[in-house]
What we know:
The protein is an alpha/beta fold. 48% of the residues lie in helices and 13% in strands. The protein has one domain (3-259): NAD(P)-binding Rossmann-like Domain (Rossmann fold, 3-Layer(aba) Sandwich). The protein is built from 9 helices and 7 strands, in the order βαβαβαβαβαβαααβα.
Amino acid sequence: MKKILITGTGTGLGRGTAIGLAQAGHQVIATTELWPQVSELRAHVRELGLQDQVTVDKLNVLDARDLAAVADWDFDTFVSNAAIGDCGPMAEIPVELVRRTFETNVFANLELAQRCVRKWVDDGTAGRLVIVSSMGGLLTAFGLGAYCATKHALEAIAATLRDELAPSGITVQTINPGAYRTGFNDRIAETTFRWLDDTVHFNRTKDVRARFAEILADQDDPQDMIDKMVEIIGAEHGAYRNVWPPATEELIKQVQEAAWTRTV
């Protein structure tokens, strides 16, 4: 039985994974960005009869007071899952939106990971850091460049931490979900149209919407990914990199191989 802290459990894969881990017998600290999400998730946990397995609390990774509270929690596994996305064609997306995405997805998550690692080192705990990356950490897609860039950064951070922390007994894993129908992908794509303006930008709204519609048309049942995340996080041992589903792993390998022979 593990004691697991997981961020970003207000919705989507994070929420489903927190519940699934509790149902599998683990103790879970499920954290959300906003207080209303805390209240709603606590009620859901009570409805499921999991109140003895799940503690729900607020942890906005950008809030210094929330980060400080982590020192008082008892956990041996940290699942770094919180993420946002601002999207649109990379040649024109406002740089402040890219910076904001990096602030949450990279810098804030790194700071929290550092706090968890230091806590384990001080306590002599051989903890595990699980970084939820994305298929976007290993390839790119039209309009999703800013989000993918943050996940590429997480891949580098995870690999570096893996090697640096090996002597301490602290282990690191990544999870790279494919495209799942949680609503997250659709929501971040929609952020594009808060700034894209046909009177200003050379990318046309109609064309960008058509490209996103094509990309988002084929998304899988999120329960498939939730079940896999519960399996990976709950296991005593496992692979460092975990791409799911298998078709996504194969696509990534094909794209990466093609990059070596691509010409301009």
